[in-house]
Write a structure and sequence with these properties.
145 residues, alpha+beta, two-stranded antiparallel sheet, 4 strands, elongated
Length: 145
């Protein structure tokens, strides 16, 4: 695994976790949105990740002495959580049905905060990996003096 490969892997992690944090922030911001443009409450969104892999020809060209290195992570999509909406009795709400119930978004603030902490920690881990790679390169340059 080359020096720049390690930076590419960490950079892909930074990008993916930033998108994850943006999506979580959007979920938190819309936790009380009872009507979107389609007339339904806001649906929680989640980010799907996938390992970036080398192409088939790259795998074939590798020799047995070389270890296969990871290529990082990439976002495959942002999907809506299909769990049911929360029902809350609030007959005075403008979106209440005939029975007085309002459909609320399927966003749980506690779950979103735990996911935000997890994404933040993953982001910090990637920053630490980049800084460590940078420190190793600087030490290698110092050896040459």
């Amino acid at each position: 695994m080359g020096y720049f490969t390690s930076l590419d892997v960490s950079a892909s992690g930074l990008t993916a976790q930033r998108l994850r944090m943006d999506t979580i922030s959007q979920n938190i911001a819309n936790a009380n949105t009872t009507r979107t443009e389609n007339g339904q409450p806001y649906r929680r969104k989640t980010v799907l990740f996938e390992e970036r892999t080398a192409s088939f020809s790259d795998c074939l060209s590798k020799t047995a002495s070389q270890s296969p290195a990871g290529k990082g992570v990439r976002v495959t999509g942002i999907v809506e959580d299909r769990s049911p909406f929360k029902r809350e009795y609030d007959p005075g709400h403008p979106d209440a049905d005939d029975s007085g119930y309002v459909l609320r978004p399927n966003v749980d603030i506690i779950t979103e905060m735990v996911n935000m902490i997890s994404a933040t920690r993953a982001y910090e881990a990637n920053v630490t990996a980049i800084n460590t790679s940078k420190d190793i390169a600087m030490k290698a340059l110092d050896i040459g003096r």
